[in-house]
């Protein structure tokens, strides 16, 4: 996986790709993949947090442009 342009920048797209990869790993896991559920849940939470933050920032910028 490529590093982001800014080492500190984690994007929703990057997190979504991680979920895609994890889904593949879970599907191929001999134990059914349940061991990966905490990671899956964490990634989903991180995505929702990031989306909410981006949405809040977009609302703030729209208001600032008025």
What do you see in this structure?
The chain has helices at residues 12-28, 37-65. It is elongated and about 55 Å long. It is built from 2 helices and no strands. Helices cover 70% and strands 0% of the residues. By secondary structure, it is mainly α. The protein has a domain at 13-25 and 35-65. The model has no long low-confidence stretch (mean pLDDT 90).
N-to-C series of helices and strands: HH
**How many angstroms separate the termini?**
40 Å
- Count of beta strands: 0
| Percent of residues in helices | 55-70%
What oligomeric state best describes the polypeptide chains here?
Answer: single chain
Low-confidence stretches: none
Rg from Cα: 16 Å
Mean pLDDT rating: 90
Largest beta-sheet details: none
Shape, per Cα inertia axes: elongated
Protein topology:
Blueprint: H1 12-28, H2 37-65
Helix pairs in contact: 1-2
Features:
mainly alpha, 2 helices, 66 residues
Question: What's this, in brief?
Answer:
The protein has helices at residues 12-28, 37-65. The protein is mostly helical.
